[in-house]
Amino acid sequence: MMKQYMKSEFYRIFHKSSTYAFIGVSSLLLLSSNVVLAVVKHMDKSFPYATTRYSIGNLYTSFAAIYLLCIMIASMIFGNEYGNHTMKNSISYGISRGTLYFGKLMAEIVYAVIAFVIISGIHIGSACLLLENSGQENIMLFLKTAALCFPLLIFAICASNCFIFLFDNIGSAIAAITGLLVALPLISNLLGMRFEFFRKLSQILPWNLINNMQFDFKKLDIILQWHEKTGYYYWLAGIIQSVLAILAGYLIFSKKEIK
User: What pLDDT is stored for residue 121 in this prediction?
Assistant: First the structure.
């Protein structure tokens, strides 16, 4: 059943204009930024920012934005299942809730990975073609940052999928997702100044882990927050929280009344 459902889900995704529009618009925006840098350099030879170092640097320092885009991807792939009553129809046709929940999640992750590879590939490729080449080290730093943030981005998709399944209204779901992904870390940061529990909590929340990464632009390396932490800590935090979001979402959805 899962295999058949996944086939139909991918067929729907890749025959849907919004999935191509998201990749196209995102790629165009990044491509245009490189074009602007190249044009300015052509007009002003002393312009110092028309380099792959600067362009790719803007990409690997923007993972907080990519983290938030995971919400858009999850909601886009889920579609208006409740509003169109297709969720109820799917269950009526004998598709299990587990198949629906995990099938949607897998589709969201696969699409997100494909979109990320295409969009970042276009940006880096256009930077190498249009701008002064600053060396392969900048690409390697981007890949290292992507590998470090990968489980945190997966958590963003898992948490988004969880709330989208639990709320009948997509607007309410996005509000709840934003609260968990962004508001909770910010509140924990503030309360952590006074309470030890919240200080510890703030250190494992993905939004904080991403935003507190720093970069040594001379050595082209990542400086992780809280110096005693290493890369495995990011993966451990991302995986554990992803599993919790998946289990919580599925267990509640399995008891939810579908209208």
Answer: 97
At residue 227, the pLDDT reads 52
The three-point CA angle 108-214-189 to 5° equals 75
DSSP β-bridge partners for residue 223: 214
Is 192:199 a contact under the CB 8 Å cutoff? Answer: yes
DSSP codes, the chain: -HHHHHHHHHHHHTT-HHHHHHHHHHHHHHHHHHHHHHHHHHH-TT-TT-BHHHHHHHHHT-HHHHHHHHHHHHHHHH-STTTTTHHHHHHHTT--HHHHHHHHHHHHHHHHHHHHHHHHHHHHHHHHHHSB---THHHHHHHHHHHHHHHHHHHHHHHHHHHHHH-SSHHHHHHHHHIIIIIHHHHHHHHTTT-HHHHHHHTT-HHHHHHT-EEETTTTEEE-SSTT--HHHHHHHHHHHHHHHHHHHHHHHHHPPP-
For residue 65, pLDDT over 60 is answered with yes
Return all residues near 85 (Cβ < 8 A) that are at least 6 apart.
Answer: none
- Residue 220 CA to residue 223 CA, distance in Å, equals 10
Q: pLDDT tens across 22-62, in order?
A: 999 999 999 999 999 999 999 998 999 999 999 999 999 99
Task: Render pLDDT for 11-33 as a digit per residue (tens, 0 to 9).
Answer: 988 888 999 999 999 999 999 99
Q: What is the pTM of this model?
A: 0.93
Residue whose tokens read 């002064």:
132
Q: Does position 229 have pLDDT exceeding 80, yes or no?
A: no
